[in-house]
Amino acid sequence: MNRKLIFEISGEGKKGYSLPPLDIEEKGIEDLIPTNMLRDIKPNLPEVSEAEVVRHYTVMSRLNHAVDVGFYPLGSCTMKYNPKINEDIARLEGFTSVHPYQPEETIQGSLAVLYELNQMLCEITGMDQITFQPAAGAHGELTGMLIIKAYHDNNGGEDRNKIFIPDSAHGTNPSSANMAGFDVVEVPSNSRGGVDIQALREMAGSDTAGLMLTNPNTLGLFEEDIIEIAEIIHDAGGLLYFDGANSNAILGITRPGDMGFDVVHLNLHKTFGTPHGGGGPGAGPVGVKKELVSYLPCPLVGFDGEKYYLDYDCPHSIGRIRSFYGNFGAVLRAYAYILTMGAEGLLNVSETAVLNANYMMEKLKPWYDISYDRICMHEFVLSAQRQKKQGVSAMDISKRLIDFGFHPPTTYFPLIVKEALMIEPTETESRETLDAFIDAMIQIAKEAKEDPEKAHTAPHIAPIGRLDETKAARNPRLRWSPN
Amino acid sequence: MSNYIPNTEDVKKNMLAEIGYSSIEELFVDIPDRVRLERKLNIKGPMAEMDLMRYMKGLASSNKHGGEYTCFLGAGAYDHYIPSALGHIISRTEFYTSYTPYQPEISQGTLQAIFEYQTMICELTGMDTANASMYDGATAVAEAILMACQATRREKVLVAGSLNPEYKQVSYTYARPQGVSVTELGYKDGSVDLNTLEQSIDNETAAVVIQTPNFFGVIEDLESIAGIAHQNKALLIVSVDPISLALLKPPGELGADIVVGEGQALGNPLNFGGPYVGFFATTKKLMRRMPGRIVGETTDNVGNRGFVLTLQTREQHIRREKATSNICTNQALNALAVTVYLSLMGREGLGEVAEQSLQKAHYLHDKLIDTGLFTPVFKAPFFKEFALKTTISIEKLNSRLLEKGIIGGYPLEKAYPDLKGGWLLAVTEKRTRQEMDALVETIGGIANE
């Protein structure tokens, strides 16, 4: 049975809104706008009553898996619990009903949030100044890459066109570097899953612009050679970019600024508990060291001892990267989150996240392959190669997990691990949940041997069966149309 | 102990012991001592809920906001009415605590909503196809420029002087590293000057970028601009106020190749500038060059209709440095708000919002002209926003209005030094006759001082 689209429950004359009547004398539209500019037919939007709209979307919401519904061990995405008080705070009218161009004296509360969170994130990352303009992680990466480019261009390094990126990196890294006009050079990983520093040393030179690194990396492993890596890049005249996607492992433990990174982005929607919203809004603030502050997008927020102000003095700025001041609503939630946790709370977050991951990894080791047998940080990567030989792929395992009420791990990433299943439990899951997931994974491993068909046909308990993605791409239907 | 962390210290101790460790510290041996933080972070907190709420309410109340003040500011962000039901729907935790719908079997709620969103954007813009959203209107314009350059293999872009100044700035930021040159065109009577456009465009121009209603509120002559662009085989990129499309001819009918814009006005609060949502629509021909996520229809193993993310070979997680864009996380929840808004308002409601905005903007415009203190900066037709000129200082005007609980217009001089004394006012359906009359009356008082 097909679920109906909103257009398919539309009925002429139905109404989901109520507006007061026009309280001024009405003029003929033709007197205000030339008729050739007016639309002939109204857009084919649905006509539905409020009650039906609410039911339609409420029923749809129930087809989603979500953090509040069940375990969501999606590696590298940090699907932690999203505190409800932060939702209440973000809905205060004093924050939501503020126009971005209001005079400074009327936006002191919002500017205070930006100013104070700037200081907190500087302390957490070891950087000197943050911009909140970037709307998401990849947007932060682009901002950071543009800053590195502008810095080199301004310091006689116009020929520095190479950005090194490990082969284990997120796809956004090479894509962002490319958008900033750099050539991407892939750095191989060594046998311990870290950057091959021998190779890096040979690659680094006078054309080096910098290195993008996620630490802990996407294998969930801390780059043990980080000090040497930083030296190699700095000695070559390059800068280090920290992809903060995995910061949930290191809060209060180590700071990218102390590791030698010059530019950092954080994903507030990962590390600082702001909701993912089904794919956004996120926030990807970027922090830099002192030498790079003048390159940040404009404006920054200043404080003169009495009031907060927007500071447009950014002489080398890369320019604006987004309108206004970024995804303020997400920034606000992150600020509330950090205030709730405090220093010890944040440390507890990372310690617990790392413990949870190691606990799961150890329990699953006998059943799945692990490419790099080391202590992991907040996440770890299993390989389903053993199961694949039995005819059950990582994808099958993922789909079978849905039957147990779990969201699958990140599947087939990072690319350097075959049949990869990347698992990130976060700190907000109980031991009971972790155990239940471990049991499910063990059962699936057993099934792979005894009854592989069960995984092939999964999910069995889901709102819909396995979907034909090839068909969708081959014959794209990207909008509804009548008939 | 945090109320967000279920495992107690005892439980953690047991877990550690079970996997053969005696302390948490042992799990961090891979981090070199030299980079370890040997002190506590110096940050505020922890705060209990009650204290946190009290503190945050204090900050919120040090803002002056639309709940207490009447807002006549626009310039890219608009104070439209948001139906009550909308907030309740997007507050469903199944929507806001889910991730990008990579696992379609357990994400049909989000996927179907995006499919409905894409359809609505197509209906409004008159285009064939739309993506799942961009960060905001500014980045949507910037990405459209990059897409047009890739599609035409040309590297010159002309942008209208009447394009939102922040959109221009973001476009420069995105274009520069790609070697794309962006040239700003002058304007004439608040609109694109067709003569200048004809003189500036040539067979190396990838795209012409315009906005309608433009930054000054003026409705552009799309058809003529499209004609000039297409004669030179350049693409036409149009940034548009989606509310206006309930009344105005859709850009798709007038020759636009890419239609983008800021979707904030469709059900998203002002929120001090974000989160907002950029929409992005194009022709069938250019579909596979679009940036970002796209949802498509398909069937499951027993033939039921379902929805999946599709055409993913354009995207960064597959194509890496060769992707059409680096965008990953977008503004899904804001796009959901747009979808719910357009479902609630529907064909008639959106029309009413647009028409009331139009009528009220003209009412206020005429009233202000009648005071004799203002003259129109431009004579061209406008939608819900208009520019007036006065000899009274705009700063004084706005600060006096503020004393009376009114947030005044945007000083055009900020972005257009040649428009000194220019004041840009926006009027939505939310403004009442009483509020508009109060504004006019206050201004009369200032003039009489």
Structure description:
The complex is a heterodimer of chains A (483) and B (449). Chain A has 483 residues and is α/β, with parallel strands linked by helices. Chain A contains 17 helices and twelve strands. Chain A folds into three domains: 6-61, no CATH class; 86-340, 3-Layer(aba) Sandwich (Aspartate Aminotransferase, domain 2), CATH 3.40.640.10; 350-469, Aspartate Aminotransferase, domain 1 (Alpha-Beta Complex). The radius of gyration of chain A is 25 Å and the shape is globular. The two termini of chain A are 17 Å apart. With 449 residues, chain B is α/β, with parallel strands linked by helices. Chain B has two domains: 70-81 and 347-447, Alpha-Beta Complex (Aspartate Aminotransferase, domain 1), CATH 3.90.1150; 85-340, 3-Layer(aba) Sandwich (Aspartate Aminotransferase, domain 2), CATH 3.40.640. Chain B has helices spanning 9-18, 49-61, 84-90, 93-96, 108-125, 137-152, 165-175, 194-200, 222-231, 316-319, 332-370, 394-403, 433-447, and strands spanning 70-71, 129-130, 156-160, 181-185, 187-188, 191-192, 205-212, 235-240, 258-262, 278-282, 295-299, 305-309, 374-376, 385-390, 406-407, 410-411, 422-426. In chain B, helix 11 (332-370) packs across helix 13. The termini of chain B are far apart. Chains A and B meet through helix 2, helix 3, helix 4, helix 5 and helix 6 of A and helix 1, helix 2, helix 3, helix 4 and helix 5 of B.
